[in-house]
Amino acid sequence: MINKKTINKIKTENFIKEFPILLALQHNSFTVRDWFEWKQKIQKSHSSNQSNGKISEIEILNIKNSLFKKIVESSDASQNIKSEYLNSVFQGPLFLIGCKNDDHLHFLWNSLKSNPKLIFICCISNNQLLNHLDFEVLLKTNFTVYQNLLTSLDKKTEFFNILSSSLPNQPLDFIQQNFLTHLTLRK
User: Fold this and answer.
1) For the chain, give me the number of helices (H) and strands (E)?
2) What DSSP assignment string belongs to 27-40?
3) How many CA atoms lie within 13 A of 7 on its CB side?
4) Could you say which protein family the record assigns here (predicted)?
5) Coil, strand or helix at 179
6) Quick one: DSSP state of residue 57?
């Protein structure tokens, strides 16, 4: 028989699997009006970026902290995420913001810093647990350098593969043999 706990557990597990970037936030004295206004602000940013052709998604999930701890502990997450850190930080009303990519992270961070009722607990990004200092470093990091490096390495590898497949091996073998012959004669 499926009960409310099972439904919430499945919903939370699917949410965690779907989003590679999760922000865990605690909300104290957050009224329904505050919640509605903040959620509208998030959705407005999300819809304006989608109209520009960007594919990015943000979702918010209210969860019980004990359920989130159990799911993370039973997951394939690294030991860093499963550490005692989780037991000490999740102590109040909690919600998760899930992001499929990092398009909205700057906006979310500024929005969180401007609202004193929201407390940033942690970010789980690519199976790594980040505190607020690590998260700020992540926001300042220019990932285009890394992407450009990967692109150029792919192109270089592709160029090397094309070059090696298009060159006939016989002249290279011949040059190698001549070179070895000359070296042995020089001895």
Assistant:
1) 8, 5
2) ESS--HHHHHHHHH
3) 4
4) Belongs to the universal ribosomal protein uL10 family.
5) helix
6) -
pLDDT tens-digit series, residues 140-178: 877 677 677 767 777 767 666 665 666 555 566 666 777
- In one-letter notation, the amino acid at residue 104 is H
Identify the pLDDT of residue 146. 67
Distance, C-alpha 100 to centroid of its chain? 7
What token pair was written down for 90?
């999740």
CATH 3.20.20.140 fits 4-141, yes or no: no
What pLDDT, in 10s, does the model give residues 112-136? Answer: 888 888 888 888 887 777 888 888 8
Query: Contact, 51 vs 102, CB < 8 A?
Result: no
Q: Each residue of 21-33: pLDDT tens digit?
A: 888 888 877 888 8
Strands across the sheet containing 128-130: 58-63, 94-99, 21-27, 118-125, 128-130
Helix H or strand E encompassing 147 = helix 143-166
Burial class (CB in 10 A: 0-12, 13-18, 19+), 76: exposed
For 37, the token pair is 């206004």
Confidence of residue 12 (pLDDT cuts 50, 70, 90): confident
* Domains in the chain: boundaries: 4-141, 144-186
Q: Say how many C-beta atoms besides its own lie within 10 A of residue 177's C-beta.
A: 10
13: left (phi over 0), alpha (psi -120 to 50) or beta: alpha
